[in-house]
Amino acid sequence: MMSLSTQYHYIYCMMMSSALFIPTVIGGALMMSGLIGVELTRLLMGHGRRSLPGGMRLMSLLLLGFMLICNLLLLSVYPAALNVEKVWIVFSLVLLMIMRGNLLRRLVERLMRGSVGTCAFLFLAGLMELLAVGIVAAVLFFNMPRTDLAWQMLAGFVLGAALEGYGLWRERKDFKVGSPSPFEDPGQMGSASKGLHGIGAYKAFERFHRLILVALQITLVMVYTFIGLTLRELLASLGMALSLTLLLREGTDRLLAKIEDRRPAATQLLLAGLFLWISGLVLFYRQLDQVPSLLMSSMALALSMAGATVSSTCLAEIERLMANVARYGLENRLDGYAQVRRARTELSILGGQMLALVLLTLLSAPWGRSWAFTDVESLFRSFRPLMILPPMLLLLAAFVSVLHFPMNSRYFLKLRRFLTLNEEGRENPAMKEQLDNVVVKRHKNRYALKFIMTLIRPLYYHKVLGKEHLAGFEDGTMILICNHGELYGPVVANLYVPVSFRPWSTSSMMDKDAIVEHMYQGTMKRQKWLPERWKRPIIRRLLYPFFQWVYQSIECIPVYAGEPRKLAQTFHMSLQAMQAEDNILIFPESGEDHAYGERGYVSEGVGRMNTGFAMLAPLYYARTGKRAVFVPIYASKKLRTLFICQGVEYDPTASANQEKLRIVEELLRRMREKYQLELVQTVAKEKG
């Protein structure tokens, strides 16, 4: 995001334009042009230019060409067409500010490297500041319409210089000792760049990373242009924007650090930030249609800055996590990776600033009318489509890209675990195969389902009791067993079980005709309130597409009941998942109801269980030497509670058949105990 001093200078240049009776956006456009010019010069000059790969160098040249065209319009075509010479005054002040800032930065760098002493630094910096203030004073007092206004603008320049100096002094320890070399060998960069393009997860990250950075630059320009146009609320709006930026960045950093050890949540927070950001832009869109009130402007500003700050902070955290993706995909050949990341980030930021400059240049155009200072209301109306639609479209595209980003929290943790195993010289082929499918190959995560689940949880609130029974077991050893209760058990388990898992699902749910019949016989047939002629069409047209999408999203393992040869695939996939440290969720109840001749799961309590699932334990032990633990879970519809019971651990010393029967009997006993508790508490509630 823009530094504090850059934000201040941007608004100061717009205020300067307003004081000289030039459209406010001219000052902002010239300031943005200067910032882009400095960055492009740094990229295209000296060692930086020689080490850039050809594609990045070409992109930098194209950006430079666009900047020169915008400068030509701002400094020559527009003023000449309307006989306005004061644009050059603003340009000279912008140029002086940028030159002074860069010279001061170089002085601080030399001081930290020891090539300039403290006394010499203070003398040169003081002399440079006095010279800059003197030139600005001369320009202002000769050209401002009022002396008091000239004094105000001069004081604003001095304040900006002090703010920039303070920022550089705080960052002084970050300046490296020695000659700056932003990039290394272009051959290494080219090799790293080519390797990264073969990693599906990295390409997905790069897509939304670029979109968000470009949108961020446009939004910041739009927000501070908006502040600069509402001069009466300048201090209040600027103070709110800067305070929100600092507070939310610090708060987001603390939150990410607090939950990182348990489960990385940067992607979920990024989605929340993008949602806030888009909401703020929508509110801005409504405000730009009229002279805004302070209250509504503050709300729009708060939402936009909150969303942008949270998003940029989470984006930086995801970029840190993506270093493990690069390590995995490049097989630890990371030479040039950091330089590629830095170059692409800088080019994305420059691209966003360039797009913002183009928009400001278009907004600065007179379009055949007088270039006298336009009233604020007319200017707002002209800004409306240009300032809102580009960042809005970029953010919507970024939101969709993040939803499809394959690296969710489970895979980030699994990738970190795999890399640790590699460093220790251990192998896990099952985990590697899974990570290859997710990290390297093209894979889409379906965050939309998690988003829907997040919205449903408050409306479908349940208590979860017994979480302590999950503690102490490593991922990949737990087989979670839950009652079905028609559709109730699967819904509640997916919403509230506090560990990750892959569920078993009957293979018939993957076939359209079979799923229609299965859902009709298992649930819909007994819904007497629905007309019979509606039941199958509802399943076919509404429920089937939704459930197909859900099964794909939660990575179900198909169960081929009644097909012994195919059933072996179910066990093979389950064992592969467990070896890759995935837990398994199973609903083993038989589909035969207590009512004679009627199919379907029992609506309450726990029905008779099939026993074949328990054979996972001896097979898993034979492959890994680890003991699987079966964790019984009872979903109580009446108490709206999910009871997690004490687990049943596999005993390898007993015979497989004896263990299978013991495990199933013990699971049933513990789950039925919770059912009896449900009955007692239900009766007590009815009496009370």
Radius of gyration: 32 Å
Whole-number total of structural domains: 2
| Secondary structural class | mainly alpha
The stretches of 5 or more residues where confidence is low (pLDDT under 50) are 177-183, 371-377, 593-598
- Please give the share of residues in helix: 55-70%
How many beta-strand segments?
8
The whole-number mean of residue pLDDT values reads: 78
Query: How many DSSP H or I helices?
Result: 23
- SS strand fraction: under 5%
Main β-sheet: number of strands, strand sense, barrel status? 8 strands, mixed
User: What's the architecture of the largest domain, going by CATH?
Assistant: Up-down Bundle
Q: Provide the CATH top-level class of the largest domain.
A: Mainly Alpha
Determine the N-to-C terminus distance.
59 Å
Shape: elongated
- Briefly note the CATH topology name of the largest domain: Growth Hormone, Chain: A
Quick tags:
mainly alpha, Glycerol-3-phosphate (1)-acyltransferase, 688 residues, eight-stranded mixed beta sheet, 23 helices, 2 domains, Growth Hormone, Chain: A
Question: What are the SSEs and their pairings?
Answer:
Elements: H1 4-19, H2 24-44, H3 46-51, H4 54-82, H5 87-113, H6 118-143, H7 147-170, H8 186-196, H9 200-229, H10 234-260, H11 266-287, H12 294-329, H13 337-364, H14 376-403, H15 409-423, H16 429-440, H17 447-459, E1 463-465, E2 478-482, H18 488-496, E3 502-506, H19 512-522, H20 532-553, E4 557-559, H21 564-579, E5 584-586, H22 616-624, E6 629-636, E7 641-644, E8 648-649, H23 656-687
Parallel strand pairs: 1-7, 2-5, 2-6, 3-4, 3-5
Antiparallel strand pairs: 6-7, 6-8
Helix pairs in contact: 1-2, 1-5, 1-7, 1-9, 2-4, 2-5, 2-13, 4-13, 5-6, 5-7, 6-7, 9-12, 9-13, 9-14, 10-12, 11-12, 11-14, 12-15, 15-16, 19-20, 21-22
